[in-house]
Hints:
Elements: H1 2-16, E1 24-35, E2 38-52, E3 55-65, E4 71-81, E5 88-101, E6 108-122, E7 125-136, E8 143-154
Antiparallel strand pairs: 1-2, 1-8, 2-3, 3-4, 4-5, 5-6, 6-7, 7-8
Amino acid sequence: MKRVIIALLMSSALFGALFEKGSKNVGVAMSAGSFAGNNYTILGINASYFIADNVMTGFEYRGWLGNDPSVNEVSVPVTYMVPLHKKFYPYVGGFYRRTFMGSGWDDYNVYGARAGVSMVTSGNSYASFGWVQEYYDGDGDSSNGYPEIAVGMSF
């Protein structure tokens, strides 16, 4: 019985460390999108840091590949991981994104929100599934929503 209790305490500490203050995460993302009638493959990378337990901020880059005009995006997200369960962490967050357009198109700002759930897959990795809603600055009431799937590692 003593071994079982020690094993449970060790595993809870292992899972808790994933989203604790000072943890660093890196992640990759892949999706598809369209702009001006052209289809793109979107590849992204991100790096983040937990400034407090369950509160993360960082930097993201996404490049839209395979068509013209070129599209590059940089984002600054802030996300709160809700500590309800050792394996599943609902999350909510917001972000600012600057989109850089090529071929004579105007660059623009995007503000958005995201919500979903992250599933701990090991002591230092997770997978996230959620929804993103974007609002385009200076474009009236224009917005766009889409699902997000991401994987990440903490170290």
